[in-house]
Amino acid sequence: MRTAPFQKAVWGIALVFSLLLPSAGLAGPHGSRKQDKVDSALRDRLRFGAAQPVIVRAKPGHRASVRNKVAAHTESYREHKSIDAFSARLTPGQIRALAHDSDVDGVSYDADIVGFASTPAGTVDTASIVKQMVGVGDWFPGSSMAIAVIDSGIAPSADFDTRILGMYNFTNGAPGILTAPYDDYGHGTHVAGLIGSNGSSSNGKYAGVAPGVKFLALKVLDKKGSGRTSDVISALEFVVANKSTFGVRVVNLSLGHPIYESAKTDPLVIAVENAVRAGLVVVVAAGNYGTNPNTGLTGYAGIASPGNAPSAITVGAANTNGTVDRSDDRLAPYSSRGPSWYDGIAKPDVLAPGQALVSADASGSTLETSYPGLVIKSGNSKYLKLSGSSMATAVVSGMVVMAIEANASGALKRWQDYQITLKKSQRTTFVPPPELTSNAIKAMLQFSATPIHDEYDVSYGPLQQGTGMVNGLGLIYFAYYSDTTKSPGEYWMTLTGYPYSSYYGATNMAWSQSIIWGTRILAGTSVTDVNQYGWAANVVWGTGEDGNVVSGTADDDGNVVWGTAADDEGNVVWGTTIPTSLDLTWSGNATWTNNVVWGTAAEDWEANVVWGTGLVGYFNGSSVMWGASAEEDGNVVWGTLNDGDDDLWGASADKVTALGVEGGAL
Description:
14 helices, 21% helix, Rossmann fold, alpha+beta, nine-stranded mixed beta sheet
């Protein structure tokens, strides 16, 4: 049974953190046995004996064989060709049989998906004020493209006029059924409003960031705000297959589930990475798992899936206290902090306003009727006030839309200026240049972000804020002036000498002037002034170090294997091929500065818990529970889990630097 995702706490979903004892014939969560192909959530459920919704991944080249084996167990299954997988409901015996099958790469729980919104408190931030707080004006409305909002739907209104291109229903395993736009839960409409409401119903007061963008609505959350991972994967596959038809360049995922396995094998992460490889920019919520509801203490490693996808732009939430000035901006307590569970990926990438945002309301929706106190009336229209990383993600999606349009506009202006210098006989027809890649846009977002600090004037660390609060003016500057016709390794900025700071209110905020690549911080103006090799669409963000494009292993032909190869031939996990002639040398004066590392010293965590000694667990439908502790005082620290014979995070504090940037605590 799926659980209602909108509970009293900020979590939106309920979890149980357990020790996840292995089922018969299966190794533990980090066991090294080859037959251990079942994720932590599913392994825990096998002991109950009931059939479970699962996603079965085939090894490359073995999809037909696995299809036949799944079909032998059930006639009701769905194929996910892009990730060589099948979703179905199977018994524990059937799951174990597939887990031991040599053609099967892994079996994952088809986890419950929810949106990351909560009942807010504090100052009301209208969407128009949000635009000021992220430093964007009415420059590039996004009219040239569409954004795919994978959520609970979008309720049509004057605020979206005729810009909803279509809505397709994927809930409960539906195959993407075309339907009239609606939203019986309300989350998707609120998200879409922050992205691109035109504000006509409120005289512009609640206009979105990109008020001209078109919408493709993919419904994966039902009336109760719940869905399945397989529904989201199907929606992502639909967007990739139809992105040219609808003109989609950006995907918004203000939803997710707790991490149950490595990003290398997580079906949802793989689907997101495939979407990025296909040329889409995928913006994902970090999650609302930042505070222990029992103790009120903040904790780390709460990033949700697919926020752990390396190439996604993962957004955490900030509380701006309703002001444009950033001196009082704070990390929202509920916003999930990094690193990601299992893999230790440094997330979130950036922060954006997410506290008490007012946006479009879906009349009669579950959120509206269940929480009438969140409804705000403006004339004859109603709006909804919500908080969460869902809202912050929508704000950034709108900014990304603006950046893509700014880049295209800058290219056209440069061509026009050049044509003026030519004789009429020499003038040419404009040919649109290559579009900005997702990696390039993420780099621009991170480099131009402004770090913020807590109430004690101590700057938040990279596992709390990424590189800082998004800065629209800086993002648009980079996007407009970058010439994508330049080859990798060449300078592509057509305007230089920018002060690398922006005024917010009376405060001049310095940009971070850095990006987080893997577990290292890369700084220097050429990070963005040069069209770096790392911005290529087929490079997984964070892979490689010091000029080598590898993450895990690579074969002799230069095929990147992100994580463990499926077989002895070194099959590529993401389907990404990097030519041997291409090395990831950071051109110009880009330099490595500090490492983003995290250790096991309890004193460095103070009283902060880190999700328990088990792995993020399963829904129990009522409350959030935290796992048993390895320490008598209830504090759990990294380094207590083993992966075979090696400590996962280091056996002792003297082996690694304490959590945070090397040389300084968070």
